[in-house]
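If you are new to this repository, start here. Below is one unmodified record pulled from the training split, so you can see the exact layout before writing a loader.
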Amino acid sequence: MNQSEDLLPGDKVTEFDETLANVNYFLNVWLLMILSLVGVVANSLTIAVFRQQGWKEGVNISMMVISVLDLVRCLLTIFKRIHGFIEIVSPSDGVSWSNLTTPNAEFLNVLTNYVTFAMLAYVSLERCLCVTLPFTMRSVFNHKVTITTLTMVAASVYGMFIFLFLNFDLEAVFSANFNATIIILVHSRFYHTHSAIVDPYLNIMSMLHPTLCFIILCISSVVILKQLQKSRDTFSSNKKKDLDNFKLSSSIYCSPTPNIRVQSSTKAHNFKLYHQVWTQQPVVWNLEPQTRESSNRQITRDETLSCEA
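And here is the target side for that same chain:
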């Protein structure tokens, strides 16, 4: 590809301009193609994992749809950068391929990126509400609601930027640099008629949309972190309380109990004791009363044993 095609007539091409153009060409074509190939493999594995987990959880559906959109973006990037291979054989055909795929692949890639931003904002907001109000929102955000919401988000974002596809037309012109006919992009009649409205609208929306999604993502992330920290503190407090109760029950179990005769139902009695300790209820020793005769026999037996000793 002749890198001086973008220069105006009469401009002089310096060595720095050529070097800068070559670096830009390498980054924009070959590096992006390599990264897109890696993205195809990574997103394919991610989709397989979420598919294996099932469709019951809304977050699995959302993350799988985002992975599918990211996979589509990687494929569109590779499709657009094929002109790098074509230019090795025919530079004019490579330029024609690049211009031909710009309205179809490049613009669709940009809009899919905006859809991904919106879906990430929705997922973060959904997680924030589920963490804040788990019992209420968990039943609200079921798989049907998630699929419907994601469909509406995608349709609304594509609809907001539909004018981007109407701004350009394709024309075949003769290029003196290539000495061949190439396909170029020209502004359409729609653009010339409504450019005073379309240009400001697209500029504002292209800045407002990702900024708003980023703000929602940041706020939701902060709220989620606060809720997780609060839950961690509560869990630590409950864990300390359980440890204290365990120490209390252990001390009661291990301490000697003179002058108390435990009957044959020792296991059931210990279970009752542990249950009362862990539920923080007062311990009541439910021992069968001894009759005077049995008590006298026990005392006589104890005295006999002590004399023998």
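Two things worth knowing about this chain: The radius of gyration is 37 Å. Confidence is low (pLDDT under 50) at residues 1-10, 252-296, 298-309.
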